[in-house]
Amino acid sequence: MMNYLIVGSGLYGAVFAYLATKIGKKCLVIEKRHELGGNIRCDNIDGINVHTYGAHIFHTSNKKVWDFVNQFAQFNRYTNSPVAKYHGKLYNLPFNMNTFYAMWGVTTPQEALAKIEEQKRQSGIIEPKNLEEQAISLVGRDIYEILVKEYTEKQWGRKCTELPPFIIKRLPVRFTFDNNYFNDSYQGIPIGGYNKLIEGLLSGIEAVADTDFFSDRSKWESAADKIVFTGKVDEFFDYKFGKLEYRTVRFETEELDVQNYQGNAVVNYTSHEEPFTRIIEHKHFEPENQSYSQNKTIISREYSSEWHDGTEPFYPINDEKNSELYKKYAELATHEANLIFGGRLAEYKYYDMDDVIEKAMKDFKAIEGTE
Questions:
Q1: Of residues 153, 274, 302, 347, which has the active-site annotation?
Q2: Residue 350: active-site member
Q3: Is 170 a catalytic residue?
């Protein structure tokens, strides 16, 4: 009999299992995929660590979380500086003075701000009611039309006027020549890939892949005193109120006989002309890695679409309809005394990696009274 059955070996489950084991609890981690690690799983192909489920750049301002992950892996100094491509022209992201110069030819923060204020004034927007209005209020109509509108509609499969304004609020806007996407104090990628982090967290803990909780639910529900569930909350309750909606991502990964395909780890394609949202070139995440062939590179094109049964749920769609539906499931979850629901799918919430680690620590402390 285990103290904890952890369903899912992503960051939330792995961190919870590590903390529980550290205080002497017996844990079993089960994972329905073929490999452990959830969405941060990497595959090593010809010496290149490929981010199998999309680009993951660790960033945080929480020193406690940063020190925690550095116990298990050495992090490099990778800085996320994506580039956007629109009809053959390149623009720096996040929105900064390099972007404004490429867009308008302005060279000072005052000129850039004046241009944005002029376009915001022309739009007549006072209180943004949707993503489109929020974006125009932040960066003006030109940048919205070229760098936000079509990219966002590809990503979410909905018109920007149908999406809530908070989605765009997390994008930085700077009036400096700084291409660093994140404002956090700490940033990097584990040298050797994210598998190093997962292996460190699960070291000495029984963890099995190819094991679906729902294939023998009664067996697993009786296997431990408590269950930490990180899967889809609506699936746990047999879709009692209906299915929550998600966006999924399909990855088209290709090995090329070139040394350097695009010169950057992340290039966003913001026009409808291309069906994919971005191209990732994985070797640029670990420039210090020299174990691969210099004449090879691996790229992944990302295609966003609506989730359906049989595909992977990636991004919760936190519009009004789905938020109301989730509240019903969250209410059911409160009545499950020996169940802990945690992570992106179980809480129907988008999490950055540092946030999900912090949440796992907080939940564990609330249950066990220690960290």
A1: 302
A2: yes
A3: yes
Amino acid at 120: K
Q: Which of 101, 303, 315, 350 is catalytic?
A: 350
- Catalytic residue, candidates 41, 278, 286, 351: 278
Per-residue tokens: 46: 């010809």
**Residue 169 scores a pLDDT above 80:** no
- Side-by-side strand order, sheet with 83-86: 89-92, 83-86, 266-269, 278-281, 297-306, 246-256, 315-316
Q: Which of 247, 286, 347, 351 is catalytic?
A: 247
Mean pLDDT in residue range 331-347: 96
Q: Mind listing the pLDDT tens digit for each residue in 197-239?
A: 999 999 999 999 999 999 999 999 999 999 999 999 999 999 9
Give the relative orientation of helices 109-123 and 97-104 as an angle to the nearest 10 degrees: 70
Residue 357: pLDDT above 80? Answer: yes
Question: What's the rounded Cα separation, in Å, for the pair 325 and 349?
Answer: 13
Q: What does the block give as tokens for 309?
A: 């049964």
Beta partners for residue 146, in sequence order: none
Residue 72's SS3 state is coil
Token digits of residue 133: 């209005």
Residue for token pair 């595959």: 43
The CB density around residue 338, as the number of other CB atoms within 10 Å, is 10
Is 0.90 topped by the overall pTM?
yes
- Give me the helices (H) in the chain, please: 11-22, 63-69, 97-104, 109-123, 131-143, 150-156, 166-169, 195-201, 217-221, 233-236, 320-333, 353-368
Q: Which residues pair with 3 in a beta bridge?
A: none
CA distance 270 to 276: 9
174 an active-site residue?
yes
Q: Match 């066990």 to its residue by tokens.
A: 368
Determine which one of 4, 174, 245, 326 is catalytic: 174
